[in-house]
Design a protein that fits this description.
- By secondary structure, this protein is an alpha/beta fold.
- It has two domains: about 15-155, Nucleoside Triphosphate Pyrophosphohydrolase (Alpha-Beta Complex), CATH 3.90.79; about 160-330, Rossmann fold (3-Layer(aba) Sandwich), CATH 3.40.50.
- About 30% of the residues lie in helices and about 30% in strands.
- The strands form two sheets. Strands 1, 2, 3, 4, 5, 6 and 7 form a seven-stranded mixed β-sheet that branches.
- A hairpin with a 2-residue loop joins β1 (about 25-35) and β2.
- This is 8-oxo-dGTP diphosphatase.
- It holds the Pfam family NUDIX.
- It comes from Oryzihumus leptocrescens.
- One of its GO terms (molecular function) is bis(5'-nucleosyl)-tetraphosphatase (asymmetrical) activity.
- Keywords: Hydrolase.
C-alpha cells in the first residue's frame, strides 16, 4: 500500500537524494460504461481522508504492471486486466521517517475481470463515479492528468483495447557449451528466473492465448505462466529460427491469427524472427494515437537493435483483423 502524500506536483526532479532514488509505485484507473456513460473507480483512504486512484509501491524485484494489478486487487477486491498506459505522476512527499522523498507512479487504464469487491487493506470505501463527479472528488490535482487521458481515449474510441505481447525467449545456455541440437537448448538459471517473473507480468494483462516457437528455450519462457493459468502452449514451427531461415514469410501466420482473433495473447520467438513481426505491427500503428511518435520509435528500436532476451513488448490494439490498430506500445526489459 502507499503512504500519505502532500498535495502538489513538481515540474522537474528535485536535486538531492530524494530525486536520486525515487519511490516506485503503480496503479490503475478501472473504467466501465454504465448506461452508456463512462465511469471510473476511486478509492478512499481513511488514514488521510482522501479520494484517489488505487495504487501502491512496488515490491522488491516486481514489475510495474504486476504491481498495478496487485495493488488494485488489494485495495478494491477487484481483479483487473491492464489496458493502455496513462500519464505517470511524479511528486514529493514526507516518508515515515519525516524525510523528503520523491515518488514516481505509473498508471494504466483497466477493466474489471473478477473479484467480489471485499475491502481488506487500508481502504474503507470505493466509488464508481461519472467523469465529472470523479474529477471533483479527486483530492490531488495531479490525479486529473490520468483522468483527462482516459476521457480522450474514450472519446476517440480507443479506450477498449486488447493486448498482444511479443516475447523474446529468456537467457539460455550458450551455444558453444551445448552439444545437442540447438532447438533443445534450455534456459539457464537467469532465464528461468525471468520466466517466473513473466508470470505476474503477463497475468497483469490477462493473457489467455500462448503461441511459441517449439524450441525448448522459447516454450520454457512461457511455460511457468501457462502452468499458473492452466493454459495450453501452442507450438508453431514457423516461429523457429530453423524454419524462418528457409521460409521467413510463414512466420507471419501466427501473428495474423492473433490479430484476427483479438484475444489477449503472447507470442514467443527468437531474435532473428522478431524484427519481421515488429514491422508487421508497425503497419497497424494509429498515427493519431502515437503522440510524439513514441510507439513508432519503440518498435523501430526493438527491430533495429533487437529485443533483449526475456523482454516483453506489449502492444495495445483496438479492433481486430483488417481494422486492428495499434494505439500504444510498452517495453518491459529484464
Amino acid at each position: 500500500m502507499t503512504e500519505g502524500v502532500t498535495p502538489g506536483q513538481v515540474a522537474a526532479p528535485i536535486v538531492g537524494s530524494a530525486a536520486a532514488r525515487p519511490v516506485a509505485a503503480a496503479g490503475t484507473l478501472p473504467w466501465r460504461l454504465h448506461d452508456g456513460s463512462l465511469e471510473v473507480l476511486l478509492v478512499h483512504r481513511p488514514a488521510y481522508d482522501d479520494w484517489a486512484w488505487a495504487k501502491g509501491k512496488l515490491d522488491p524485484g516486481e514489475e510495474w504492471p504486476t504491481c498495478a494489478a496487485r495493488e488494485t486487487w488489494e485495495e478494491t477486491g477487484l481483479q483487473v486486466r491492464l489496458g493502455r498506459p496513462l500519464p505517470p505522476a511524479s511528486y514529493t512527499f514526507f516518508d515515515k521517517a519525516g524525510e523528503l522523498a520523491t515518488k514516481e507512479v505509473r498508471y494504466w487504464a483497466a477493466e474489471v475481470t473478477g473479484g467480489d469487491g471485499a475491502l481488506v487493506n487500508e481502504i474503507d470505501e470505493v466509488a464508481w463515479l461519472p467523469v465529472a463527479e470523479a474529477s471533483d472528488r479527486l483530492h490531488y490535482a495531479r490525479d486529473r492528468d490520468q483522468l483527462r487521458a482516459l476521457v480522450r481515449a474514450s472519446t476517440a474510441g480507443r479506450l477498449a483495447t486488447w493486448p498482444l505481447v511479443l516475447v523474446r525467449h529468456a537467457h539460455a545456455v550458450g551455444r558453444s557449451t551445448w552439444a545437442e541440437p540447438d532447438p533443445l537448448r534450455p534456459l539457464d538459471a537467469a532465464g528461468e528466473a525471468r520466466a517466473e517473473t513473466l508470470v505476474g507480468l503477463l497475468g497483469a494483462y490477462g493473457i489467455t492465448r500462448l503461441v511459441t516457437s517449439p524450441s525448448v528455450r522459447c516454450a520454457a519462457t512461457l511455460a511457468p505462466y501457462a502452468a499458473a493459468r492452466g493454459l495450453k502452449l501452442r507450438g508453431k514451427p514457423v516461429l523457429s529460427e530453423e524454419m524462418y531461415s528457409v521460409t521467413p514469410d510463414r512466420a507471419m501466420r501466427p501473428l495474423e491469427r492473433l490479430l484476427e482473433g483479438g484475444r489477449p495473447g503472447a507470442l514467443c520467438s527468437h531474435g532473428p524472427v522478431l524484427p519481421s513481426l515488429l514491422g508487421r505491427l508497425a503497419r497497424t500503428l494509429d498515427p493519431g494515437e502515437d503522440e510524439g511518435g513514441a510507439g513508432a520509435a519503440a518498435l523501430e528500436e526493438a527491430a533495429d537493435l533487437g529485443m533483449a532476451k526475456g523482454e516483453a513488448l506489449v502492444c495495445h490494439i483496438a479492433g481486430t483483423g483488417a481494422t486492428a490498430q495499434l494505439v500504444a506500445v510498452e517495453r518491459h526489459l529484464p
